[in-house]
Design a protein that fits this description.
314 residues; alpha+beta; Type 1 dockerin domain; Immunoglobulin-like; 3 domains; 9-stranded mixed beta sheet; 4-stranded antiparallel beta sheet; 4 helices; 19 strands
């Protein structure tokens, strides 16, 4: 009995010692060696593909699977790994930033409107950025002229009047920082000259095929922004010429810029789109969610825009 107890205790001690030694000797996973074999080859790409589609449990260290260092684990990592294995591509995680930090990504940097009259004015600047590490982002704006009102990802840029003979191109640079990396983006806004030639927009309105209605005295309007369209604040408008299912229109002395266009006959005179009105727009989609498409107009240009989808609101 005494020897049995000693042998039993010894066996237990040996078991736990072996387990601990085995655990200590388990190699630490390296980036790209997803099956922990000590080598990076096709089996790792297959393992990663299966992992993405839920056939393997999550990795203790998810960075070993993010071989292209974009902050996500998806099919692009499989492509990256195959390029390394077969086409002498970059090694897994070779392009990762020092210390593991990912620089902020600036997706879009826009101003609305992008063209201002010679008297200057204000444009709304919007920056859409993200940080894969979840770091707090700061935004610094550096205008070539004028000044910035506000802070953060959406600000106002106030631009002075242009009294010169030529159009004035103003530039704005934004720096987005996470405290470690600071990418930049640049945009431009045009301030027209007092002598800049105006442009015109003309075309026809036609009822949608199979529909009938009188388009006489319908209104055709242009808008500087989609927000202006949403709140019905047209930049310029005119009435149609003629009557019946097809009419013409023309809008003159329009400054160079980017615009949206719609057409509307307010049959019940209630000042908003409602049943029985005839509406149309330059773009796509249908009621109740039309999608207006922006178009550019250059100084002195005579642009033709036809709207062939005029419909009666049911």
């Amino acid at each position: 009995m005494k020897w049995a107890r000693i042998l039993g205790a010894t066996a237990i001690a040996v078991f736990f010692t072996f387990a601990l030694l085995s655990a200590d000797r388990t190699p630490t996973p390296t980036c790209g060696d997803l099956n922990n074999s000590g080598d990076i080859n096709l089996t790792d790409a297959i393992y990663l593909f299966e992992y993405i589609f839920g056939q393997h449990p999550p990795f203790p260290d998810p960075t070993v699977a993010d071989v292209n260092c974009d902050g996500r684990t998806d099919i692009s990592d499989v492509t990256y790994l195959l390029a390394f294995i077969y086409y002498d591509g970059s090694a897994p995680c070779a392009e990762c930033p020092p210390g593991g930090n990912h620089a902020p990504i600036i997706h879009t940097f826009t101003a609305s409107p992008t063209t201002l009259p010679s008297g200057g004015g204000t444009t709304i600047v919007t920056t859409v950025a993200e940080d894969q590490d979840g770091d707090l982002l700061t935004y610094v704006y550096n205008p070539s002229i004028g000044f910035i009102l506000g802070s953060g990802s959406s600000v106002s840029w106030s631009l002075p009047a242009n009294s010169g003979p030529n159009e004035l191109v103003a530039t704005l640079v934004v720096t987005v920082s996470d405290g470690k990396s600071s990418p930049t983006a640049t945009l431009s806004v045009l301030v027209l000259s007092p002598g800049a030639p105006g442009a015109s927009i003309s075309g026809t309105l036609s009822m949608q095929a199979g529909s009938s209605g009188d388009l006489g005295y319908a209104q055709v309007a242009i808008y500087a922004t989609l927000m202006d369209w949403n709140v019905y604040d047209p930049f310029k408008y005119t009435a149609t010429i003629g009557s019946g299912t097809t009419v013409t229109y023309a809008i003159y002395s329009v400054p160079q810029g980017t615009y949206y266009l719609d057409a509307w006959k307010d049959n019940d005179s209630n000042l908003y789109w409602s049943s029985g009105d005839i509406v149309g727009w330059y773009g796509s989609g249908g009621l109740p969610s039309p999608s207006l498409t922006a178009f550019s107009l250059f100084a002195g240009e005579n642009k033709v825009i036809n709207v062939n989808n005029m419909i009666i609101i049911p």
